[in-house]
Amino acid sequence: MNPRGIDGRSAEDVRKAALGRENFYAFLSRLYAREVDEEMLKTIIATQPTINFLASSQETQEFEKGNAILQEFVSHAKTLKGKEIRNLITDLRVEYAAMFLAVGKPLKFKGPLLTSESAYLGDHGASYYDKPFDVVKDTYSSAGFEKRKDFLEPEDHVAIELEYMANLSRQTYVSLDERKPDSASGYLKLQKEFLRDHLLRWVPKLCEGMKDLAESKLYQSLAFLTEGFILMDEQVVDELTKALR
User: Which of 176, 180, 195, 178 minimizes the C-alpha distance to 236?
Assistant: First the structure.
């Protein structure tokens, strides 16, 4: 996943990059999809060294800053035991509910963050189920992707859009496993188009809102990591595509 040059790498290197991208998109998606529980806290701690490694090869200041903030969060979390861990998880759940669901105490924000593309790019202001919702649904359908039935938010919710990118990344390396580089290139093309037409047009605005409102180190880091990752990922996809030619 090094944006400083992938030309000349083998299909196996592209496969590894696609696998890494799938894992990170899935990681981000999970954090937006629902509150942190004990299992997710363990995942965050276990994933932090990988994020630190990625930050050493990234060119976006946002990703580097997000990594630094996450390191602070993880370092603190590792010192906690028993009731302290449970209290941390409770605090994070309260913050998630207030910030994304408008449930519980308002903390310092005036209202919940808007988490769906329609609220940013729709024709009727900050509303849901607007034109982008239909466009995203059609995009998913054409790629054979469906929102999981247990997730009740709309298809253009940030968690599902990130999950869609994880799915396309998985299809990329599966195609390479099956020795179908043309199919892999096709999935990379879909990823570039989705970044350009959707994620890059609105998710940075969501992240800016999170930077202003998040109180915990975890959600502060999530804002910077998300923005930094998608800002550089379009270039990464271009370079992965070139490596398959």
Answer: 195
**Residue 101 identity (one-letter amino acid):** L
Token couple for 1:
């996943």
With tokens 């202003």, the residue in question is 212
How confident is the prediction along the chain (245 residues), in pLDDT tens digits per residue? 433 333 445 788 899 999 999 999 999 999 999 999 999 999 999 999 999 998 887 778 999 999 999 999 999 999 999 999 999 999 999 999 989 988 776 555 556 789 999 999 988 767 788 899 999 999 999 999 999 999 999 999 999 999 999 999 999 999 999 999 999 999 999 999 999 999 999 999 999 999 998 999 999 999 999 999 999 999 999 999 999 87
Q: What domains sit in the chain, N to C, each tagged with a CATH number?
A: 11-243 (1.10.3480.10)
Q: Are 223 and 211 in contact (CB under 8 A)?
A: yes
Q: Where are the alpha helices (H) located in the chain, listed in sequence order?
A: 11-33, 38-55, 61-78, 83-101, 118-121, 131-142, 158-177, 181-194, 200-213, 217-243
Q: How far apart, in Å, do the first and last CA atoms of the chain sit?
A: 18
